[in-house]
Write a structure and sequence with these properties.
- The structure is a single chain.
- This protein is of the alpha/beta class and 206 residues long.
- It is built from 7 helices and 6 strands; from the N terminus they run αβαβαββαβαβαα.
- The strands form 2 sheets. It has a 4-stranded parallel beta sheet with strand order 1-2-5-6, sandwiched between helices. Strands 3-4 form a two-stranded antiparallel ribbon.
- α1 crosses α2.
- The protein is globular and about 50 Å long.
Length: 206
């Protein structure tokens, strides 16, 4: 697999603007689509097997990008899909994507735009995704049922966990992508991984 991680607007090395910029949501979504351009331009990339995942604001980017870009063939938004909470900063609620003259929607409805492509929603018991098994997931399953694809939407609910992208959440995502993208699930062993120093991870030097 090829994996590509990119910074949120105003975070990491993307400091040309501040993260609380009122257009942060637009800029981040544009970055997500351009990241797909880059990854799919690589000679070993397989455009028929393109997964996207992220947690919190990265989860928002995952379901927004999946909604507007059909190149995402499987999506796993983590600790973000809620029908009653949209996030806490401009990168998620800075534009009226949820409400305007003549329309109103929520993140569960936006996430449902992934249908009929495979979708994994990971939720926990300590944030706004605590209602996913009772509210959001049944709704999503109903949308997928319209396509005859109920088996392609899943919810992993970790009632005793919190708002993070911890090991159990990552393992669930690895299994999901292995299943839907034809990957080797046994290769998702993180025990041999090394966390590189920050300087080695940066794209630009002084």
């Amino acid at each position: 697999a090829i994996a590509f991680s990119y910074d949120m607007a105003g975070r990491g090395e993307s400091r040309q603007v501040t993260h609380n910029n009122p257009n942060a949501l637009t800029m981040q979504l544009w970055n997500s689509m351009r990241a797909l351009d880059f990854v799919l331009s690589l000679p070993d990339a397989d455009a028929s097997r393109t997964g996207m995942t992220g947690a919190s604001g990265g989860g928002t980017q995952t379901f927004l990008c999946t909604a507007v870009d059909d190149r995402v063939t499987a999506a796993a938004p983590v600790v973000m899909v809620s029908s009653w909470c949209y996030g806490g900063c401009a990168c998620e609620i800075g534009l009226p994507v949820h409400r305007g003259p003549g329309y109103a929607t929520n993140n569960a409805e936006i996430a449902a735009m992934a249908a009929p492509r495979p979708l994994l929603v990971i939720s926990d018991g300590a944030d706004w995704t605590c209602t996913a098994p009772r509210l959001e997931f049944p709704y999503l399953r109903g949308i997928y049922k319209l396509y005859g694809r109920e088996q392609d939407v899943e919810n992993v609910h970790l009632a005793d966990e919190q708002h993070d992208y911890g090991p159990s959440k990552r393992q669930a995502v690895y299994r999901f992508f292995a299943k839907h993208l034809g990957l080797n699930a046994a290769a998702a062993d993180e025990s041999a991984n090394t966390v590189e120093p920050q300087q080695a991870l940066e794209a630009f030097d002084a």
